[in-house]
Design brief:
Blueprint: E1 4-12, H1 19-33, E2 37-45, H2 52-62, E3 66-70, H3 77-87, E4 92-95, H4 106-115, E5 120-128, H5 132-148, E6 157-164, H6 165-171, H7 181-188, E7 192-199, H8 211-225, H9 228-253, H10 257-291
Parallel strand pairs: 1-2, 1-4, 2-3, 5-7
Antiparallel strand pairs: 4-6, 5-6
Helix pairs in contact: 9-10
The protein binds uridine-5'-diphosphate (UDP) and magnesium ion.
Magnesium ion binds near residues 101, 202 and 207.
């Protein structure tokens, strides 16, 4: 049987200080796996402004397992890994950060989970070494997202994961522009297994995820996987309308003009919110239709006739 191949997809945004260390870690992985697997490394330069691309070009020239894609500008991490996925030819694909925050040794565990039958092995953080702000925002983000998302998106899990060819090919059929990849992989289903790890500090350089990019990611996560915000507006509006109505009636009885005015305004705001939420439901459904996700995903097809 032909040897199976594993593709590493490595998004690169200004990682000149990390590239030598990253490449040597990848060489170690290749060395350890060479009896069992072929490998390919797909670096996606996401519009780096430092000399990352020069370094990558040199690696490409001397190493036949190295492949490089380079964007015309910074398109963002999620788009970078999407491009890497499009180019990957392996039987399994591993997404891994370039700053060594995702410890390369964890790949062995991801591969073991795959060998034992998992279609998705996702690295779940037990501990993380990051700034207080990053830890706090991430903690809240994952928990609120889990409450509201229509699908089960695991907490404390980034994009560091292994997916099989079948999952990769399915992922490639999702045409949506605002991509929250972890959400999409969860959406796809199949056998998904967590692999626990402790997240390292960034080895060198600084995070390419500005506050603005973090907010955009959170926005994509919520809007991509939940219509709950619209529903919350509807529920709040209904409550306000009821309270306002009760207050108005009470104001008529007391009688208190002030109470009537305040209550009436409250009820009116409630009615406006409910109306907005109703319109929102239609827009939300239109949005889901436009996302154009597949209606269902088959794992296997056992048919007698073709
Ligand atoms: N990255 C990217 N494009 C960006 C920002 C980041 O390709 O616009 C890459 C970055 O080089 C790294 C990975 O995505 O390999 C994770 O980014 P980073 O370490 O900056 O984020 P953090 O770990 O701070 O969340
Ligand atoms: Mg990082």
């Amino acid at each position: 049987m032909a040897m199976k191949k594993i593709s590493w997809v490595l998004p690169i945004f200004n990682e000149q200080e990390n590239l030598p260390r990253l490449y040597s870690a990848l060489q170690t992985l290749r060395e350890h796996l060479k009896e069992r697997y072929l490998v390919e490394f797909i670096f996606v330069d996401d519009g780096s402004k430092d000399n990352s691309l020069e370094q990558l070009t040199k690696l490409y020239e001397k190493d036949p397992d190295v492949n490089v894609l380079s964007f015309s500008r910074n398109f963002g991490h999620q788009i970078a890994i999407t491009a890497g996925l499009d180019a990957a030819t392996g039987d399994a694909i591993i997404f891994m950060d370039a700053d060594l925050q995702d410890p390369p040794e964890v790949c062995y565990d991801l591969i073991t989970a795959w060998e034992q039958g998992s279609d998705v092995a996702y690295a779940k953080r037990r501990k993380r070494k990051d700034s207080f702000l990053k830890k706090l925002t991430a903690y809240i983000f994952y928990r609120v997202l889990r409450k509201f998302a229509e699908i089960d998106i695991p907490a404390d899990t980034g994009d560091f994961r292994l997916i099989t060819r079948q999952v990769a090919d399915t992922l490639k059929t999702f045409p949506e522009k605002h991509r929250f990849m972890r959400g999409l992989v969860s959406y796809i289903g199949f056998k998904q297994t967590p692999v626990l790890f402790d997240r390292n500090e960034r080895k060198a350089g600084k995070s390419g995820y500005s506050i603005k990019k973090m907010f955009r990611l959170a926005e994509d996560a919520f809007t991509g996987f939940s219509l709950a915000p619209i529903m919350i507006v509807g529920v709040l509006g209904t409550l306000l309308a009821l309270i306002g109505l009760a207050g108005t009636v009470l104001g008529l009885f007391l009688p208190s003009e002030l109470l009537i005015i305040i209550s009436f305004m409250t009820a009116l705001s409630g009615v406006i919110m409910v109306s907005l939420a109703t319109i929102g439901q239609y827009i939300g459904r239109t949005y889901q239709q436009v996302q154009d996700r597949p209606l269902y995903i088959l794992q296997k097809k056992l048919l007698h006739s073709p």
